[in-house]
Structure formats: C-alpha cells, structure tokens
Structure to design on (348 residues):
C-alpha cells in the first residue's frame, strides 16, 4: 500500500494539501437545481471535490422495510421506498451534475452503495469511488470495486479493527489505491466521541492515507483531525439546516463550510514541516533580541581579554554568546571602548 493515492489530477496523502470533500449527499432533496447550487457553494468555499450518493433503492432493504409506513418526510413520500426514490437521481441528472462539476472546475465524486450502483457510476465515467462505512463489511461489493482498480476512499465508522483488516485486504491484493476515512457513525458526534487518535493509528497500521469524515456540530474536531495529519476531510453541507431531509440538521451551512475550508488551509499551513531553521520573518527579531558579546569596560590594545571585561547583551548583530569561550584569552588588536559589540577583527 502507499502513503499517497492519486485522486483526479493530484496526489492525496503524506506531504500533500488536505483534500476537502464537500458532502452534498442527499441534501439536494431530489432537486437538480438545489444540487447545482450545492456545487456552486463548494466551489466558492474552495473545496476539492463534491460528493453525491447513488443507491439502488430495491437493494437497500427487504420489501417489508421498504414498504413500511414512514412519516419522517411526508413531502417526499409515505413509505421508506417512496422517500428514497424521491431523493434518488437517475442517469440524466447525474450526467448533468458530472458535467456541471467539470465546468465549475471541481472534482465529481459519488458513493456507490451496491454493485448495481457502482456499475451505474462506472458507466458515468467516475474517476474515483467513495465507499460508505456501512459498506465496509459488504465484502462482495468491496471485491467488485477493488477489481475495477480506480482509487477508492473508504469510511470506517461503526466497525472493528478485524473488519477493517478484512475490508482492506481486497484492495491490497488487487493493488487498488486506497484511502481510509476515520469516521464515527453517530449523528451528530459529540466531541468526546470523535476519537481522532485513530487517524495516525490507521495510517501506521495500513500504510495508506487516512482522512476524516466528520459528523460533529461545528468543525473544531475537523481542524484537530487536520492537525493530526488527516489527508482528507469530508463534511456534510447544506443550503439551509432547516430544510426537510435526511442530513440537513447535521450539516454546515454555506458560511460555516466556507469558514471551515479556510480554517483547514490555515491549520495545515501552520503545521509546516519538521525542518527547523531561522525563518526570514524571524531575522529582524533575532537581530534585535539575541544576545551578543560586548565590552563591559574599555579594553586597551594588546590587553588579554578576560571574562569580567565582557558582558552579553542586545542587539544580536555581534559575535553570538556561544563564542564567549573563544573570545576570552585573546588579545585586543585595537582599543575597544566600553559598550562596543565585539567582532573578530578586534581580536588576535
């Protein structure tokens, strides 16, 4: 496995900018114009990709569950089947969304929830696949996607390590690029349950890029995930949290999403890299406040310089304090007035 994966036209993972996925999901409510507005919001926010979801409704559950009364969203339907069918886009809508993303210059992603949905997306020309947490134990689906060979982003919510081990295996066996997403499948997720320590743990265990798919309110844990090395971030967003539908209440509104993306970029910029040196921005302060070796008294030419003749003081433009042992014991090559920064030219 690799510490980076190719997602669209760039590498994602170690040493690369955080890949921000705007999870539109089902927040379009089955309305193509709302879906396009969500794409526009993601573009303005500076996200790298917009992600939607594709399901085969008939494959979601047994008939008695699909046809059971469901009064959660009467605007969408009166059974689970009707609700799901209302928010499910077909071929023409997905072609339009794919092309609209291309026009707006943002990557188009989609979660395939079953083999038929993945085949649909493959015909659509999807360049990378997302697999949801509840697909992690669907080994036939994972095998099918791994055989395709395109990069895969797989969430790991509500799973055990043994299940993740099994889920990673087909991708390793087929050499399929894989990125895992640490995820807690609780909506919303309390901060104390985010368990962000799993991000470096999963990276070390599987040697693949690891991102964070967050469901918390706000985005502070998301920034912490970036600070811990999350290679990607996926967050639900919406036009309006008060809209009817599955995920609006746990989603970020446009201004929040925009602020989160900016904060992610600032957070990663602040992390920098493990390369300690004096920055150009520090030079003025260094020269002003670092201590140098200075004369404490008048030192006549030819005199042996002794420790009591010197002191350490600002500015930091003279010989640094670490050279004190090399100055003491030398002779003055010239008269050195008191309160003068010592230079090598003054000594012999």
């Amino acid at each position: 496995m690799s510490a980076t994966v190719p997602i669209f036209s760039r590498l994602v993972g170690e040493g690369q900018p955080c890949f921000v996925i705007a999870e539109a999901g089902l927040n379009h409510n089955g309305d193509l114009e709302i879906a396009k507005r969500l794409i526009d919001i993601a573009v303005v926010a500076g996200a790298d990709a917009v992600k939607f979801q594709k399901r085969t409704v008939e494959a979601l559950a047994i008939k008695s569950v699909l046809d059971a009364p469901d009064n959660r969203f009467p605007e969408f339907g009166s059974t689970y089947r009707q609700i799901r069918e209302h928010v499910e886009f077909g071929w023409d809508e997905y072609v339009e969304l794919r092309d609209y993303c291309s026009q707006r210059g943002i990557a188009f992603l989609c979660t395939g929830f079953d083999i038929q949905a993945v085949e649909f997306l493959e015909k659509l020309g999807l360049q990378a696949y997302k697999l949801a947490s509840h697909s992690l134990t669907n080994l036939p689906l994972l095998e099918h996607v791994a055989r395709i060979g395109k990069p895969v982003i797989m969430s790991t919510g509500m799973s055990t390590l043994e299940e993740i081990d099994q889920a990673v295996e087909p991708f390793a066996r087929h050499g399929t690029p894989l990125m895992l997403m640490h995820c807690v499948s609780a909506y919303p997720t309390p901060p104390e349950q985010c368990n962000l320590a799993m991000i470096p743990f999963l990276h070390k265990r599987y040697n693949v890029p690891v991102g964070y798919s967050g469901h918390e309110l706000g985005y502070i844990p998301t920034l912490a995930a970036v600070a811990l090395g999350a290679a990607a971030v996926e967050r639900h967003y919406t036009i309006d949290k008060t809209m009817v539908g599955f995920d609006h209440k746990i989603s970020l509104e446009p201004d929040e999403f925009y602020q989160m993306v900016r904060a992610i970029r600032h957070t990663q910029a602040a992390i920098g890299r493990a390369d300690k040196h004096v920055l150009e921005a520090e030079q003025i302060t260094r020269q002003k406040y670092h201590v140098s070796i200075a004369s404490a008294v008048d030192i006549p030419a030819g005199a042996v310089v002794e420790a009591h003749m010197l002191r350490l003081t600002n500015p930091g433009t003279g010989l640094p304090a670490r050279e004190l042992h090399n100055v003491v014991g030398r002779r003055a090559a010239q008269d050195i007035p008191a309160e003068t920064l010592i230079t090598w030219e003054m000594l012999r």
The chain is about 35% helix and 15% strand. The chain has a mean pLDDT of 96. The first helix runs from residue 32 to 45.
